[in-house]
Amino acid sequence: MQLAKRLGAHVTGVDNAAKLDFMRSVGADDVIDYRRDDFTRTTQPYDLILDLVAHRSIFAYRRALAPGGTYRCVGGSVPTLLRMLIGGWLVGRLTGRAIGILAVKEGPAHFEPLAALCATGDIRIHIHRTVALDEVPAALAHVCEGRALGKVVVELS
Fold this sequence. Notes:
Blueprint: H1 2-6, E1 12-15, H2 20-25, E2 30-33, E3 46-51, H3 58-64, E4 65-73, H4 78-95, E5 98-101, H5 112-120, E6 127-132, H6 136-144, E7 151-155
Parallel strand pairs: 1-2, 3-4, 4-5, 6-7
């Protein structure tokens, strides 16, 4: 969200009600509680959707995109990711939208610009909790339940 805001985007965050204030604090202009409202049934289509979970159908994401818009998922189940790779390409091509998976290049060179923004404080990293190595299973459960507000850091000392 912070990077999108730096680039001048109007940002809508979608998550559960417990995270709406947090999303506003990191730059969301609008927030949607996915348990109450379906962002894919909006009257105002989106130019770009970055989805960290990918639970909906390709057709729902297509409906939510403006003509020429782009949808990228970052995570989801293996069947969902396969549908995005195959069906997303086809549906996107037929409808004038780009639907697929976000692939990030590996290596420190690709992250140096982001690291520099973090070092200067222009981008803030939000640490929800720091845990010891033996607390990792409980911390993972906490994250998987969608309750973490920011990053969970594992301390190895």
